[in-house]
Amino acid sequence: MTVLSMTVNGKRVSAEVEDRTLLVYFLREQLSLTGTHIGCDTSQCGACVVHVNGRAVKSCSMFAVQAEGAQVTTIEGLARDGRLHPVQEAFREHHGLQCGFCTPGMIMTAVDLIRRKPKLDRETIRRELEGNICRCTGYHNIVSAIEAAAAEMASQ
Amino acid sequence: MIPAAFRYHRVKTLAEAEKLLAASPEAKLLAGGQTLIAAMKMRLARPSDLVDISGLKELSFIRATGGALVVGAGATHNDIANSPEVLRLLPALAELAGGIGDPAVRHVGTLGGSVANNDPTADYPAALLALGATVTTNRRTIAADGFFTGMFSTALAGGEIVTSVSFPVPERASYRKFRNPASHYAMAGIFVAKTKVEVRVAVTGAAPCVFRAREMETALSENFSPAALNGIDVDPSGLNSDIHASADYRAHLVSVMAKRAVEALA
Ligand SMILES: Cc1cc2nc3c(=O)[nH]c(=O)nc-3n(C[C@H](O)[C@H](O)[C@H](O)COP(=O)(O)OP(=O)(O)OC[C@H]3O[C@@H](n4cnc5c(N)ncnc54)[C@H](O)[C@@H]3O)c2cc1C
Ligand code: FES
Ligand code: FES
Known about the structure:
The complex is a heterodimer.
Chain A: E1 2-8, E2 11-17, H1 23-30, E3 49-52, E4 55-58, E5 71-73, H2 86-93, H3 103-116, H4 122-128, H5 140-155
Parallel strand pairs in A: 1-5
Antiparallel strand pairs in A: 1-2, 3-4, 3-5
Helix pairs in contact in A: 2-5, 3-5
Chain B: E1 7-10, H1 14-23, E2 27-30, H2 36-41, E3 49-52, E4 62-65, E5 68-72, H3 77-82, H4 84-89, H5 91-98, H6 103-108, H7 111-117, H8 124-131, E6 134-137, E7 141-143, H9 144-147, E8 148-150, E9 153-154, E10 162-168, E11 172-179, E12 186-194, E13 199-204, E14 211-212, H10 214-222, H11 247-263
Parallel strand pairs in B: 1-3, 2-3
Antiparallel strand pairs in B: 4-5, 5-10, 6-7, 6-10, 8-9, 11-12, 12-13, 13-14
Bound molecules: flavin-adenine dinucleotide (FAD) and FE2/S2 (inorganic) cluster (FES) (2 copies).
């Protein structure tokens, strides 16, 4: 067991974990942040994407102890003062989700993508979503939502 | 899926990592974890200790030095894809790195982890072999020609740590892969490198281990054009056959992707 400290969505957290605890289980089961989903558990689907020190990673493929001292952001940490993040707002506006299972990972990937590449075309968005699988939407509206969010954020 | 229990160590120096590896025969290095953690979840790997080298600054550098590009083992795929030095001197390597997996994998997966793992479908081994790269470890240097020894096996000894890879800068180089649409790994990936003295062609994804296509090298040395590859049949007998593609299909893919790699340079 290791006593672990990190900052999750701006709050310092400290907890005792087994070294083999995956970050996704730590977030979901120990911190009750169940917005981060587990789809495949084999690093294929992207439902578990969170940000660690500002970079999108798959939390099913990282141990919680690797995030010691890190800044972690989950889907629960995006909204500010009761207002959705522009990417969340764009997914709502453009109907970028149906069942919603893939959505937290899609949005965390999109926020990371827009930070890295503020100017986006649809083809780039599709290529960058290769690690995120959606069984419902056919991706079309997800791409539209990300395109709109990138434009909105650039104009702010 | 929960891996078997292990002890985790985050090291601050290479020397500390060496000591921990020497102390327990079942200890393993952890870099990006993008291969190892999946193997541990499936219980295909059960290390007693994980020695996390991902925070080692001494392993994460990229620099150009007299005709070569030297990349630290800890450089991530994303670092390599976006490095101004790599983009300037070896754009084919940047393109290769940018085509690995997906953004989340590229953010943490490393050159050292990929090279040490020598997955038969991994991309970097083709670049190392075609460019005649040299692998540096904590103990010695190993030429790429002698490094990749078989499926998931390398010349690395127990406790040996890859610290960097030195890529001689070629006149021209290109990489073309036919991706498995689900995993993005190579079903056939061809790296072609032309220097002042020779042309080298390395093939990954098609066989149990990366290999050089000598017949293609000879043909391209005489005439560096896609047409030079006409009539060179790849022998399917040593190639992989699985649910994704038969050996015959892979042999065909090798020819097609090799032509595309040369076309990209013509
Ligand atoms: C969804 C997905 C898609 C992928 N697609 C591709 C792809 O298209 N092409 C491709 O090439 N790869 C692909 N990969 C693999 C990826 O590139 C991995 O990052 C890489 O194979 C391993 O690097 P790592 O840093 O994650 O190593 P780890 O998983 O941490 O380690 C791998 C092995 O190498 C050893 N090791 C690590 N560092 C060193 C070192 N410095 N010296 C000696 N031994 C060391 C470890 O002990 C372990 O045995 C994919 C992976 C995933 C999850
Ligand atoms: S649950 Fe992590 S990638 Fe699917
Ligand atoms: S909205 Fe259902 S999986 Fe994407």
